[in-house]
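Box S1 | Example of a co-folding query
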Amino acid sequence: MIERPAAPAAERLFFALWPPSSVRAQIEAFTNQLGNPRGRRMASPNLHITLLFLGRINAGQRDALIAAASALHLPAFMLTLDRCGHWPRSGVLWLAPAVTPGALSDLQDSLTAGARMLDLKIDEREYLPHLSLYRDVKRVPGTLPSPRIRWPVRDFVLVRSDTHPDGAYYTVLQRWRLGG
Ligand code: 2AM
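Box S1 (continued) | Returned holo structure for adenosine-2'-monophosphate
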């Protein structure tokens, strides 16, 4: 019998902005003001802004994505989260910047271009940077308060998502500094 080595399992990966603990604390304090939106609140360690969702990626593709991200030299930037809203169709209650900084668009575009070079299937919808606070929210009570959270973005990360019966678990695999 010929023994073949097991094919390395594909992983569900995405690039993201991962808030430092001081920003995470501000997001938590804001979320506590929302009362009870009767949805699934995102656990504090899981809060993030997706830059590019990649889906299932094999080890070779992951290494090529890491090489592409490592070749980028892009500036750090200030991200102001000053909008809170609700998408009724997806049930996501989110924080977002009213104005997307050019440096964030450039970072997102560069990662997308790198993934396209690898022939990965990329979501063609317009990129809307947002940080999900709750999922499965049917409707929000009254008007939502206005946040004012300033996040100095100094790095971005590659994350693995593992799905468990009690929700998604995220593991930061690699981090790249911006600026400097
Ligand atoms: P969301 O917060 O708006 O749901 C990990 O799943 C991250 O990737 C989430 O932040 C999710 O955004 C984002 N994402 C984007 N496209 C996705 C997709 N097709 N499936 C799952 N997550 C996706």
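The CA atoms of residues 106 and 139 lie 34 Å apart. The first helix runs from residue 21 to 32.
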